[in-house]
Amino acid sequence: MNYSEKVIDHFTNPRNVGEISCASGCGTVGNAVCGDIMRVYLDIDDNQVIRDAKFKTFGCGAAIATSSMATLLIKGKTVQEALEVTNKAVMEALDGLPPVKVHCSLLAEEAIHAALWDYAEKHNLTIEGLEKPVDDIEELEHH
Fold first, then answer.
1. Rounded CA gap, 67 and 10, in Å?
2. Among all residues, which ones are annotated catalytic?
3. What is the pTM of this model?
4. Which residues of 11-37 are buried (b: 16+ CB within 10 A; e: fewer)?
5. Residue among 113, 137, 112, 8 at smallest CA distance from 65
6. Which spans in the chain are helix H?
7. Going by C-beta distance under 8 Å and a sequence separation of 6 or more, which residues neighbour residue 86?
8. pLDDT digit of tens for each residue in the chain (143 aa)?
């Protein structure tokens, strides 16, 4: 498979790996078909700015690379700005993914949404445009 240098770099040197204890929001999504599981932790301040983002991913190199890039893309952003980070933005930031690995970028997008959903529920907030996340991204691909 042809991976970009950025994908290889983020797989071999992933950024923001780990957990945030007492996270403002935490979301986990998976893909039953390939077995990837991604968990994203967020530390969000009182102004709804993401101070820190970490991840733990069980999966292939592309899943790890998309997790790493997704956390970089949302750090320092507001909750609303983070909601607008799409799987396309993650793929573009990594200089592309092979077609059979596009689902990994969907996992990253949905894991961010799941963590934002958890944050909103914990703080009794409504985040405009945020829909209840799925547990398995296969559900998205069938809609």
1. 9
2. 34, 104
3. 0.94
4. beebebeeebeebbbbbbbbbeebebb
5. 8
6. 5-12, 61-74, 79-83, 87-93, 102-122, 138-141
7. 109
8. 799 999 999 999 999 999 999 999 999 999 888 889 999 999 999 999 999 999 999 999 999 999 999 999 999 999 999 999 999 999 999 999 999 999 999 999 999 999 999 999 999 999 999 988 888 888 776 54
